[in-house]
Amino acid sequence: MLVGAAQVRVADTRSGVDVSRDLLYLTAITDDAVPVDWTQAEEGGFTTSDLTPAAEGEAGFADLPAPASKKKSYDGWTKDFSTWLLQSQKTELWRSPALKTVSKPGESERDFRVRLQESTRQDRDKSSDVLRQKYAPKQAALQERRRKAEQAVDRESEQAKQQGIQTAISVGATILGAFLGRKSINVSTIGRATTAARGAGRVLKETQDVGRAKETVAAVDEAIAALDAQFKAEADALGARTDPLTEPLETIALKPTRQNITVRLVALAWAPGWRDAAGAVDPAWK
Fold this sequence. Notes:
Elements: E1 2-12, E2 17-27, E3 42-43, H1 71-88, E4 91-96, E5 101-102, H2 109-179, H3 187-239, E6 250-254, E7 261-268, E8 273-275, E9 281-283
Antiparallel strand pairs: 1-2, 1-7, 2-3, 4-5, 4-6, 8-9
């Protein structure tokens, strides 16, 4: 067997990925025209520190293929190993087009979507807080305007009520005076009648002031309703963003450059196996 160990780095500034992996593969050495085919290699499942210089116990050794006894063969196999890693090793990532976010190396699609959902929820909460802070002063100002407008309605209503009472008393006194024996209109009667007429005019003015105050309240209520509708529309827009759990994702395949492949070892190795009664060997290292 031929063992190959290397460190492969995949880096991409655009997606922010920079990851290195230590790899170890085993492939057979044969007497064929192409004695080593790295495309048939299998991951070893162990590290170079697990390799031992000698077999344990009374293990026997299979015959060494002729190409494995030539030193130059290993130089070529090392170059082939590096080339195969360049062509075969890639890091596949998921990308969210809506959020412009890329998954982490080794992150499953499900885990990536869950992470996006959590991130989206946090961003939405922050945006909602910003939105509330944006509208809070406007809402407070309108509520204060409405409070003052309501006070104006109460004040004008009270003034109109008092003026109505005073006018009614004045008019009543004038009419009563006329019925109590004053058979002719004198200066005093005319004066009281004039005062009563002026009072009636003030009652009309106060009534009009009450109407204008109520119109102000209605106008402020309309402004409050319009602001609430605008706030709701922006809040709904925040909640209508793409759902990370159902959004179609893109796939990105990143490959290493030759400069980012460091071959640490290509060497002859004997892989342990069990020989059965029929002479067949089953690998014991997997």
